[in-house]
Write a structure and sequence with these properties.
The chain is of the alpha/beta class and 399 residues long. Helix content is 35%, strand content 21%.
């Protein structure tokens, strides 16, 4: 997650997808695969009592870095991640790890202090932080110790050696949405994007995806978050929009409906065009008439909905996708610790090609620290998003 205008996203546990067995390995239910042969050292020794709230107990110490006292929305997200971690520890059985909650205050300096403390106290793995600048700072510290970091930022530039991102990355949502449109015969595109870092990232991925397919990007226009700027961007894109097979609007909230409404008012006939978005559309009013028939990529909802029900029953409120990511991160580490008791988690284990599956769907980590996720395609029908192309249920371990 980064400080941009982007929305970040019943399983009993995160599971490891097995390439040598049918079905899955569910650590939360006690079923285990044969451990891989990995050259690993033993777990770091705990050094004195941990500083911070502690969930669970066991031979391994793991740190969870979240912005509990950050201003704005950061503290609310931190609370959801901590709640989800509590649920995950309960599902693991409580005796797998000692999860130490450390506050970063949402700042790079706070992340550095918390990471240094985690290493000093003998944490085998660091989960978090949340904001991209904090992740970069934490990674600069932890890579010197050879211990892995699994963070929650959606900014791909925060990833790097030893620092993995478990979050939903905008470029994957863009590629999945656009490639679906291409598979349906759409070859020419007009994009209307927000200005800033998110819009720049989307633009880069959009150009790359369309170029790889042999399609055409007829126009890109960008807007600031005010009515005059949005109107200017629509006017700038008008001619290209009339000629394009597809209109791409990745932003969420009120923006997609407002842009489509104005395009229609200015004479663009959308009947034979495909309007496409991203998972950001989950923040939009999908009952808006302008959005009916549009498509977008997002995570598998079946597992997430089951997680939401469990979370709501325990904590009395509905979680966002950030909570699911926190849950999956804790269960991922817990599963790997249960697979090879007493052994430090290595990059080989984290990067296994079969990947993992959890409340947020299937995912696997790449050596770059980025991840790959299985995403579904949804179409807005009668005011709700209905899956029209399912997310994959597994990864090929050879790809």
């Amino acid at each position: 997650m980064r400080k941009l205008k982007t929305a970040a996203m019943c399983v009993a546990a995160t599971v490891i997808l097995s390439g040598c067995q049918s079905g899955v390995t569910d650590f939360g239910l006690g079923s285990q695969t044969k451990a891989q042969t990995v050259n690993a050292s033993t777990l770091p020794a705990k050094t004195g009592p941990a500083v911070g709230d502690v969930l669970g107990f066991g031979p391994a110490r793991v740190a969870l870095l979240i912005p509990r006292t950050a201003p704005g929305n950061g503290s609310a997200v931190a609370k959801q991640i901590q709640n989800a971690a509590e649920l995950a520890i309960s599902d693991l059985g409580g005796d797998v790890m000692e999860l130490v909650i450390k506050d970063t205050a949402g700042t790079p300096a706070g992340a550095i202090t918390a990471t240094q403390a985690a290493i000093r106290e003998g944490s085998a793995v660091v989960l978090g932080p949340l904001f991209s600048s904090s992740v970069t700072s934490a990674r600069s510290i932890i890579t010197q110790s050879g211990r892995p970091l699994v963070a929650f930022s959606s900014d791909p530039t925060a990833a790097g050696a030893g620092g993995y991102l478990i979050s939903f990355l905008p470029d994957q949502l863009v590629s999945r949405s656009v490639n679906y449109a291409i598979s349906q015969g759409k070859r020419s595109f007009t994009a209307i994007l927000p200005s800033g870092a998110y819009g720049n990232l989307v633009e880069r991925q959009l150009r790359s995806t369309i170029q790889a397919s042999g399609g055409q990007l007829l126009a890109i226009s960008k807007y600031q978050y005010n009515s005059k700027s949005v109107q200017a961007a629509i006017t700038e894109a008008l001619g290209a929009a009339q000629q394009s097979d597809a209109i791409f609007i990745p932003d969420g909230g009120n923006t997609p409906a407002a842009i489509i409404r104005q395009l229609k008012r200015l004479g663009v006939d959308l009947n034979n065009k495909m309007v496409i978005g991203t998972g950001q559309w989950r923040t939009a009013n999908l009952s808006a008439p302008e959005l009916q028939g549009a498509v977008f990529a997002d995570m598998d909802q079946a597992r997430f909905q089951a997680f939401k029900q469990r979370y709501a029953q325990k904590f009395g409120s509905e979680p966002t996708v950030n909570a699911a990511l926190g849950y999956d991160a804790v269960l991922l580490v817990g599963g790997l610790l249960k697979e090879r008791p007493g052994q430090q988690i290595t990059a080989t284990e984290i990067q296994r090609r079969q990947g993992f599956i959890g409340a947020s769907g299937i995912f696997r980590f790449l050596p770059s620290g980025l991840n790959e996720r299985g995403l579904a395609i949804f179409q807005v029908q009668d005011g709700v998003a209905k899956a029209i192309q399912a997310a994959p249920s597994s990864f090929s371990p050879t790809q």
